[in-house]
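Run log, item B.
One chain of 952 residues. Sequence copied directly from the ordering sheet:
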Amino acid sequence: MSRTKATKGVLRSTVALAAAGSVAFAPLLTLAQEVPASAVTDPLAIRIGTTEAYTRIEFAGVIGARSRISVDGRTVVVRLGTTAAPDVSRLKVDPPPGLEAVETRAVRNGTELVLTLAEGASVTRGQADGAVWINLYRPGQTPPASAAAQAAATVAVRAVPSADSVTLAFTWDRPVGAAVFRRGEAVWIVFDQAATLDMPGASDLGPAGEARWARGPDYTSLRIDAPRNLQVAASGQGNVWTVTLGGRAVPPGGVRVGRDEEGRAALVVTMAGATKAVWLTDPLVGDRFAAVTALAPGKGFAGRRQTVDLTLLPSAQGLGIETPTDDLTIEAAGDRVRVSRPGGLTLSPPSAALEAADPAADAPKKAAHPAVILSRWADTGDAGFVVTHRRLQEAATNEAQLAGDNPRAPVEARLALARFLVGSGLHYEAIGVLNAIVAAAPGMLGEAEVRGLRAAARIAIGRYDEAATDLAGAALAGDPSARAWQGYLATQQGDWTGARENFARASAVIDDFPPVWRARFGAAHARAALETGDTQAARALIAYCLSQDLSAGEQLAVRLVQARLFELEGQTDRARAVYQAVGRAPLEQVAVPARLAAVRIDLARGAITPVEAARVLEGLRWRWRGDITELEVIRTLGELYMSQGMYREALTALRSAGTRLSRLPGAGALQADLARVFRALFLEGGADGMPPIQALGLFYDFRELTPVGADGDEMVRRLARRLIDVDLLDQAAELLKHQVENRLEGVAQASVAADLATVYLMDRQPEAALQILWATRTTLLPTALASKRRVLEARALLGLGRFDHALEVLGNDTSPEARAARAEVFWKQEKWGEAAALYEQGLGDRHTDTATPLTRDEENRLLRAAIGYSLARDDASLLRLSRNWTPFIDKARAPDALRVALAGLNGLEDPSSIREFAAMAARADTFTGWVESVKGRFRNEDGGEVAPAAAR
């Protein structure tokens, strides 16, 4: 295919390059700028979606997001960085419109997916949301111009050629970052903004050859063929960048490359004004490289630096970076550019760059592995400890003084002192020496021995989190001696499976350690084997530990693990005897777990009561803290308190772990215990045996345990109902208000707000009730809830004296609750007849059951009905009322008042009779009856009476 035809094919196939200049300046096909991979769990996920206009094919995942796409006429090639064939069955079985054929082919270190387009079909491509995508348009469909293409600026390019050089000027409308560097027979000029290059003014490039430019979503690149003898220079001023090819170039400067000072296996480039990294694909070579742009004034990298993972190219401006890997990460931020890989770059140790030193002949020598402690490090010979320590310390001090601020000064004398201190068990002092080395030369954090020695010292004194940070450094990745320490750490944190894996990988170096650490590693490995059910391996490891030359304390630690083995094998008496013997030792780290195990055995046998066991465990809880042993003591104590119904004590014990132990593997189970206890108390009736105010106090003390969601909301409502039942209305209102304002929304919020409004009305706070109802108004409520809220709003308006508004709110609602509220409004308006009729309706056919006395609410309604008919002069209705309800007088709470009310005024008009009726009307308070009915409703919603639970 000719260059012209290829160019036309490219123009048909991609929108990003549609604004190319002429054939001489043909567009350069590039891969869109790379973005971080998305959260797809599979390394390669091919996703297909179809719209009316086009079909999108996405390549996501760690591998998919780094795919490279090239388009040549009707052929689209997607290069995947995996040798495993991708699943393209859907594309083959049901190809989308515009796709003619699909095939996969193996290439070196990868696989290529070849898509053949139908005649007249077209594609666009790019990257978004961590995936590389292709939009496939069927024949006849025209891809829309991208927003970036429409919004891109036009940049005038002017060339001034001479016999041996050419100068190009790029005039932008604003300051932009640029990168200028050479790759082989071509010079690349990259800008950090998308633009259309206006090239007619640069048709003559003098000694340089053909130029091709391309525009990406947020960058513009220009590739110029240029012989290697042409020097390259770049400068920027304001909105204009000037690039000169040929002539005598001024050596660039202003870019410094160094190691990551925090010890990570990464390079940090100091370059003022760095803006972004742009990933490109060379159209001739086909490889992938990056340009890092920077703002003016010009600055470049004069040298060439190559590592296993990357090559920093010489540049006239910015940076050019080549890499054979697919996972190189370049982060440009301000004046720093960080270059790394997920597992770290492969770099030489920092000590390789230090000046040579002549260590003393008798100084402790470096071990074969960076985290190994050698027994001979502690040897002092005939000189003794004091003399040897003083000599090594003086050598280290002299070395530090001579080093001054020189980061390349030797550190061998200081490392020798650190080795001696670690080998002698002076771990705090060793950490101090190692920290001083890092403070003087931060790059030494990348030195494997510094990391390894400091991790060993930190583990020895119990600083496990700090040690884990040291061991996680890239300098120790895969080292077997580091694996030994990681296995030991895992046992301290209860990660038994992880411990076994690490110890298995460290087996080749365990015997290089001193006997004390061989035994510690062996005992930890044996404990992990027991916890994972491998008693045979545990028995062999215990025998190995006991074969070492150990102190009495170290032997007790091994015996503790041996007792656990006896216990799992069913030799309970033997295990208990060992536990008791170890528990009497003055070493808390072995005595506390031994006594805990003995208590568990005695408790299971019934040899001690739960109360006695709890008393012992309370003492153990404060004797040893910070690791899996404390966690086990706390959990056992919480279970004991729960079994005795001592809920407060159980919650207090379980919560005492706080955040200190949150990173231990068993911490999740402890949190589950806390949630289980709290749920048993406030959702399953455990707290129903407590006085309501005591239950409220317990809830408030552990309120942070309230679960999110329906269970937590139901807990609060159950407790609020109990408080309502004993007239603790303020406390109930506070609980419900917190739910409404902080935890709920929608229908759930409207429902709880109705309960809160009810509490406010019971507490004679109609204004507060009205405010909460209005603040939680929403649409599409269930019919029953909407009616309930409407009645409550009417009662609140009634309490504020807004009678007409209350009737408007009730509208045509004929529910019993609405009828009762309407009766109250009529009574307040002194519409006696209407009120009396509604009160009588509310009583229904209750008069047929004469054997059952009236409730307070029924008696008050009957009184009001009788008084209302009397005051309305409705003798017929009063006579009917008297005939139906006279049998209830003798069993009434106020028989005399009921007898007078049912008799009526009987034509009496004297003032005393009127006053007596008025007094009876005042005594017939239906509010109290309404409150009692509400309490009954809350009790029924709570499931009725609950049998008291044993509680303290």
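Observations after the first pass:
- The chain is about 45% helix and 15% strand.
- The two ends are 90 Å apart (CA to CA).
Flagged for discussion on Thursday.
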